């Protein structure tokens, strides 16, 4: 086990974490501002990936595909907010879960009807093919670009929330929605914008990750589960919490998959150690979540003190 | 005149009854994966099955299809419903071994015939074999054994092996290791449905392997190959047909070209039944069939061949008819082993591009008349 391998795995963990951040930022924003549990967030991720693959396939240009993926996810988000979600704000979380779960089924079937049951082809853009030498590590250029994208989006999101009028309204909406409505802010429009923003982030993540994964129906649900773990760890409603939670989950999951089988191999035979190690590694982030909830029941950075 | 009519009617009835005994309706329940990441496999299997019924213009098969969404608990519920309410005689269709493990033992114990068009977990092939359980595809280990044997032929010395952590993944690694004679650079279990292989690729790079063996069916294979292409690794890959099957090759693209994979079937296999099947499948669905489609097609034809000889309500007679295997398998010769799993030739295929389409071509043979090792533990 060399230093280069450990460093590469750390980079992998950070990259995985940043992609999780794109997913969980939207999820936590929507929950924090609107008090809504949106299970269909994973479907928006899928829409981003499918549109990106379809447009990139038709035009041969990944970047056009990426724009199309983001736009389609944002548009789908806005449409869903206006048609369905708007009726759910005053209902309890169980109704929201039920309705957004129905949306998962509808969107999955819809995508299957349009694109068929077989996975789509989406390749990495030419600009980011191959590997790059980082000190002692040969690292995939595309994964490095994903780290860059993740950091840029995190910075942009922070600027948006901390420095712009829209950000002030979002924060105000988080702390007291009646009051900002009373102050004359159009809260309905604000909700639509926040939901579309969250959807666009999910679509961006789907399109970016789609280039190195399988673009298939149902691709969003496994990521959605992880994104929920992230926001529970980070503190529901907190963007900062989502960032820390996503990096924690990304690094711990990657390092667990890497180190646990090796640890068991010290006292078990290889096949057994691989089986036990892999099984335990898949539980690791849930153990982490349970542990954090014992000591910090509202997560690491609770949005409402 | 009236008497005459009655006589004709009675005669028709009698004749009808005689043919009825032969052509009694067989109720077939198909539980397969039609949604989620594994949908491509189930859809191909179903389409192959349906195509066989259509080509035979079969009137005596009643087919009920349900989606298991790749979830074992759902598959169990569907099986119970099909047995209790739909009164099916035969169950079939399951793609994934963990689902087969959940459904098959209870179904065959209720005197339902189970014909597997795909999953062949080792646990059902040995001591737990059952007269009502037939596997029309292969025992899980079989194609991976072919990959192991071919790795020797390619003189691989230090192979890194990897599969998902579920019954078929364990069978895959065991099958490969049973024949592979070189050293193992490393051995890894991944999660079922895993989409990111960065951690595994880094370990392969650090292991100093000279080659890779993977078993990653469906979307898992697409994700791995996508990321492998971008990892800068350039090791030869040997595999079984699942990871380089026609259902995922278009999405993997040129990254798969040149990979050797073991299979009991290939679209270019040269026999009349197969040529007819591939042409009919392309005409009907506009794509090249995968091995899953070929297995669905064979399963349907096996059922049709038995239904022509025996009444399904007489299970013993129907089982005997199934054991005769009197149908033209698209893989060529078909014979049963002692555990009612096929004994068959295992080919080596290479992924190639033909007329702009990425597909497989047979380049060699790993085994002639190969039987699985679990059959000797089966006492039926």
Structure, explained:
The complex is a heterodimer of chains A (305) and B (380). Chain A has one domain: ABC transporter involved in vitamin B12 uptake, BtuC, CATH 1.10.3470. In chain A, helix 2 packs antiparallel against helix 3. Chain A has helices spanning 3-34, 41-59, 62-83, 93-115, 141-163, 165-175, 177-182, 187-210, 220-234, 239-265, 270-295; strands at 131-134, 137-140. In chain A, strand 1 (131-134) and strand 2 form a beta hairpin. Chain A is mainly α and 305 residues long. Chain A has a two-stranded antiparallel sheet. Chain B is of the alpha/beta class and 380 residues long. Chain B has two domains: 9-138 and 269-332, Rossmann fold, CATH 3.40.50; 141-263 and 346-376, Response regulator (Rossmann fold, 3-Layer(aba) Sandwich), CATH 3.40.50.2300. In chain B, 41% of the residues lie in helices and 21% in strands. In chain B, the strands form two sheets. In chain B, strands 6, 7, 8, 9, 10, 11, 12 and 13 form an eight-stranded mixed β-sheet that branches. Chain B is globular. The model of chain B is unreliable at 11-22 (pLDDT under 50). At the A-B interface, helix 1, helix 4, helix 5, helix 10 and helix 11 of A face helix 2, strand 7, helix 7, helix 8 and helix 9 of B.
Question: What is this structure's SSE topology?
Answer:
The complex is a heterodimer of chains A (305) and B (380).
Chain A: H1 3-34, H2 41-59, H3 62-83, H4 93-115, E1 131-134, E2 137-140, H5 141-163, H6 165-175, H7 177-182, H8 187-210, H9 220-234, H10 239-265, H11 270-295
Antiparallel strand pairs in A: 1-2
Chain B: H1 2-22, E1 26-32, H2 39-55, E2 61-67, H3 72-84, E3 90-92, H4 97-109, E4 113-116, E5 133-135, H5 141-153, E6 158-164, H6 167-179, E7 183-190, H7 198-207, E8 211-214, H8 219-230, E9 237-240, H9 249-252, E10 260-263, H10 272-285, H11 291-307, H12 315-324, E11 335-336, E12 342-354, E13 357-370
């Amino acid at each position: 086990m060399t230093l280069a391998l450990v460093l590469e795995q750390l980079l992998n963990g950070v990259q995985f974490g940043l992609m999780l951040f794109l997913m969980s930022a939207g999820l936590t924003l929507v929950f924090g501002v609107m008090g809504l549990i949106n299970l269909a967030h994973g479907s928006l991720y899928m829409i981003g990936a499918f549109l990106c693959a379809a447009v990139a396939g038709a035009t041969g240009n990944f970047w056009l595909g990426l724009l199309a993926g983001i736009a389609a996810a944002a548009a789908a988000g806005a449409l869903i907010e206006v048609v369905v979600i708007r009726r759910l704000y005053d209902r309890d979380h169980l109704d929201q879960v039920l309705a957004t779960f129905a949306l998962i089924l509808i969107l999955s079937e819809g995508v299957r009807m349009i694109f068929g049951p077989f996975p789509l082809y989406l390749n990495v853009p030419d600009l980011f093919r191959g590997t790059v030498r980082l000190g002692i590590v040969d690292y995939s250029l595309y994964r490095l670009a994903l780290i860059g994208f993740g950091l840029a989006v995190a910075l942009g999101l922070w600027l948006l929330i901390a420095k712009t009028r829209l950000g002030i309204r979002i924060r105000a909406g988080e702390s007291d929605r009646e009051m900002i409505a009373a102050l004359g802010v159009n809260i309905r429009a604000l909700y639509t914008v926040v939901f579309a923003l969250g959807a666009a982030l999910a679509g961006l993540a789907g399109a970016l990750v789609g280039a190195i994964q399988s673009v298939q129906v149902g691709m969003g649900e496994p990521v959605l589960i992880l994104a929920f773990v992230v926001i529970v760890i980070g503190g529901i409603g907190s963007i900062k919490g989502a960032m820390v939670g996503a990096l924690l989950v990304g690094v711990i999951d990657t390092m667990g998959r890497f180190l646990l089988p090796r640890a068991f191999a010290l006292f078990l035979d290889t096949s057994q150690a691989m089986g036990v190690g892999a099984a335990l590694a898949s539980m690791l982030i849930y153990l982490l979540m349970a542990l954090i909830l014992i000591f910090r029941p509202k997560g690491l950075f609770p949005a409402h003190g | 005149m009236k008497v005459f009519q009655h006589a004709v009617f009675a005669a028709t009835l009698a004749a009808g009854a005689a043919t009825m005994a032969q052509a009694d309706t067989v109720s077939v329940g198909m539980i397969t994966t039609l949604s989620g990441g594994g949908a491509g496999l189930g859809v191909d299997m179903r389409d192959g099955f349906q195509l066989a019924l259509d080509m035979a213009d079969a009137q005596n098969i009643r087919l009920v299809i349900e989606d298991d969404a790749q979830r074992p608990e759902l598959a169990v519920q569907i099986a119970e419903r099909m047995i209790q309410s739909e009164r099916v005689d035969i169950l079939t269709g399951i793609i994934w071994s963990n689902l087969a493990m959940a459904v098959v033992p209870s179904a065959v114990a209720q005197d339902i015939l189970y014909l597997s068009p795909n999953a062949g977990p080792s646990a059902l092939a040995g001591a737990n074999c059952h007269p009502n359980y037939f596997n029309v595809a292969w025992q899980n280990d079989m194609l991976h054994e072919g990959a192991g044997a071919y790795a020797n032929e390619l003189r691989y010395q230090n192979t890194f092996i990897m599969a998902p952590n579920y019954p078929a993944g364990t069978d895959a690694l065991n099958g490969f290791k049973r024949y592979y004679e070189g050293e193992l650079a490393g051995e890894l279990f991944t999660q079922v449905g895993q989409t990111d292989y960065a951690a595994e690729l880094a370990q392969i790079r650090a292991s100093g392997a000279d080659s890779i063996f993977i078993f990653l069916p469906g979307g898992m294979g697409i994700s791995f190959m996508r990321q492998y292409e971008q990892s800068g690794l350039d090791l030869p890959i040997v595999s079984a047909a699942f990871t380089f099957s026609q259902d995922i090759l278009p999405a993997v693209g040129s990254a798969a070209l040149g990979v050797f994979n073991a299979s009991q079937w290939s679209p270019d296999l040269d026999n009349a039944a197969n040529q007819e099947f591939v042409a009919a499948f392309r005409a009907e669905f506009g794509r090249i069939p995968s091995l899953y489609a070929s297995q669905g097609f064979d399963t349907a034809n096996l059922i049709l061949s038995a239904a022509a000889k025996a009444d399904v309500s007489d299970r013993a007679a129907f089982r005997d008819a199934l054991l005769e295997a009197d149908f033209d398998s698209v893989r060529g010769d078909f014979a049963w082993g002692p555990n009612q799993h096929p004994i068959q030739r295992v080919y080596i295929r290479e992924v190639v591009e033909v007329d702009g389409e990425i597909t497989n071509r047979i380049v060699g043979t790993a085994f002639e008349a190969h039987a699985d090792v679990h059959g000797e533990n089966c006492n039926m």
